[in-house]
Amino acid sequence: MTISFGNPDRPNSYIGKTVPRPNAGRLVEGRGHYVDDMTLPRMVHVVFVRSPFAHARIKGIEAADALAVKGVLRVFTGADIAKVCTPWVAVLAHLKGLKSPPEHAIAVDRACWVGEPVAAVVATSRAAAEDGAALVEVDFYPLPVTGDMMTALDADTPVLHADMGDNLAFRREHHEGDVDAVMAGAHKVVSARFKTARHTGVTLEPRSILVDWNGAEGQLTAWHATQAPHMIQSVLAQHLGLEEGRVRVICGDVGGSYGIKVHVYPDEVATAAIAKIMGRPVKFIADRLESFTTDIHARDHEIRAKIAVDETGKILAFDIDDWTAIGAYSVYPRTSAIEGNQVVNLCGGPYDFSDYRAKTTVVFQNKTPTCQYRAVGHPIAVAVTEGLVDMAAAELGMDPVAIRRRNMYADDCYPVTSPAKMRFEGLSHHASMDTLVALMDYDGLRLEQAEMRAKGIYRGIGIASFIELTNPSPFMYGIGGARISAQDGCTVRMDPDGSLVALSGVTEQGQGTEAMLSQIVAEGVGVSPSRVRVITGDTQVTPYGGGTWASRGAGIGGEAALQAALALKASILEVAASMLQAQAKALDIRDGKVVDADSGAERLALEELGRIVYFRGDTLPKGLPRELVQTRHFITSEYPFAFTNGVQASYLEVDTDTGIVKLLKHWCVEDCGRIINPQLVDEQIRGGIVQGLGGALYEEIHYDAEGQLLNGSMADYLVPMAGEMPDMVIGHVETPTMESTLGAKGAGEAGTAGAPAAVMNAINDALRGLGAQVTEMPFTPERILRALGKIED
Amino acid sequence: MSDVFRNKVDITLTVNGEEVEARVPAGRHLIDFLRLDLGLTGAHASCEHGVCGACTVKVDGDAVRGCLMLAAQADGAEVWTIEGMSDTGAIRDLQDAFVTRNALQCGFCTPGMLVACEELLTRDALPERDEIRDYLSGNYCRCTGYEAIVDAVEDVAKARRGLT
Fold first, then answer.
1. Residue A30 and residue B82: Cβ atoms within 8 Å?
2. DSSP-based three-state secondary structure for A565
3. CATH superfamily of this structure's domain B8-85
4. I need a surface site. Which of A15, A408, A727, B60 has the fewest CB within 10 A?
């Protein structure tokens, strides 16, 4: 069965419509169910003692005073936990050369970053556990600190992990063509140094886990704020010595994730180990300082890069030298080499050029580990690429839109393989740019900009084209040996009242996964979305799947749901055909009723069919299949990733006296393939843009030379507030992927991917006449004033 | 703990229209009292020092940070949380507008955000978009990018004035 997506008047046309999210109603009434809302009988609380040093040997731990606190039950050291929980090594076979030492749930003899857990205090209340933790005496012997990224490989820099030999975690070089020769002969070569700041996700719900070990059943149950329940199931089973089938991970409401909650965290695994030791429920909720020091960080990159162009603005070559520091360990099990790897894969992405050289150097340091955060590597690659393109345009006296049109892959050239060896099935750079230029009235805005400049007001327009990697296949993690599913599944069943239940392996953290699934299932079977109940986030209940990350929920999970729904529809029609003495193909299901496909005349309500099947099966022919439940799985097979594309524009004003940037408006045109719910896609893009704007203007984790994190609170680490953010205009081009019936690609990361580059280009557009240029994010007033020469010390 | 300073305090207050008597530790924050002692888990603890607004509840008519107020300070107060405001229907239009505009994603900031929005609409019947943005700048949302929230508040402001 297929669906005639081209016909908006088709029956049950819920795919492509804005329908309400089924879970939004209870969230606005405060009826969310987050991990910290749960209380279980005999539940205790764990609080971690964390290293105050960036690097120190643990010579001894004295817990007597902590144990004397009323309510404190146990204190665990790293050695205690290591008896029941094996360490992990976060490497993947396909990232050749990646190395990382074994990491314990609680540090055993050495702490490697400020915030690493060194002991755990369990008490009957959180307050008692905190009081106890303050009284645990750890005898630390401070060791030399490796902090700086660019000197991490110098001969006189201390080696963080002696067994590793040096501080190099991973290096990859990619060569295509002869970049040196092209650069030597090019009309213009522009070079620049870019920095993106170490930042973090700041989920409003801190990391949360509640674990119970029921020894009588031999089952571990974890209620966990996670994006990937099945991955966590596998990890807990492996490291606690349990069968996977004896670990159940339940994921209720999750208060924001953005990639932060898709990783394995030492304190969360320790919580599970403690539950197993104590045989009772143990809850861990990170406090805000713990969030800043132990949630993964990301984007700590420094890049030297060059672009070569000819006289007409044709891009000839890119040369990229990326460095990133990932903290003390590669993060399990996805590893911390992916972000640098993505920079190599994605630079130059929108453009048709031939010679490409890119290198990433990934080093260890005594800081919080970094790993995948929303739009992994994209904001870095897009900033470098689009920054260079704008600089080249300025050198040539070309308009930023014109130089992009000169170089973007033609909309009719697909499929095509990029110099980075990325395979593009079908993109729409030119159509997207045309839509953007019309939406923002580009020429009108340029006139306005010139008028304002004449009045001494410095406004800038910044453009950023981008590609986005979505719908990952096993080429992302599975081929490297990680038990992370690229396949996903959905079970759809019809109950006696004619309503449907859909169980899916993808998860919900607010994106609208459940709404998206409900409308796909509704259209696939032929009922109203309100008749579909969606269940996600329980490894013991849903089909096996990867969860929600890398913008795979709609493209992978949605297609599985569509196929399961179509299969159920066929099953229902087979029963209906028997009951009505008709041909199944002459029947259809519309709005919860079996109808004649041609006339639309009602023949049988689904609740009547359900009544007969479930309660009067005796009246149906013997041997008639009557399985009103179907499961389907989906995995992509033609392309390693479904690339999407888009283009953003920022319009802003720079106060050249204060260095303050005021965002006036923002546009994004995105092509995520088939749009299932326009409102949810727009809101994903808007939310993503604002996270990108945060990285561009505000967000930066600061450390001192001793590896102390200096701004670990929401008052000191700035995230975007409502008052600073602009209104955002969103447009679409739809190029469905042919890999699936649904045709959906991802949309979750586009906003974050392109926004920082658009802002950077807009600031530099505003300041170009003043001879100032900024390339180091975030673009704080201080950095802008320094670029203007107004601060010189 | 010295004898002079009692570490347990007896309080009597009204929560969501119901009288509550309790003996609370002197250091118990209002948000913890509501969540842990009364089971009112709608408001959330997030930054725990008054920046993000996820714990915002209504105390004697004002939007107040539940993480910056002690339960002992609420003695004699009238406290409303999202649960009570939902039961009475006091902000039904605002809640409906949030759903219609998809002005929430993960929902963690939403109960506090709604209390702040209601306070704004009580004080300024028809705020401009810039005023809405400024007023809500004490309530962080990491999911939506804020625009849909501003849209929802604007819709309700106009509807309450009969302008739509």
1. yes
2. helix
3. Beta-grasp domain (3.10.20.30)
4. B60
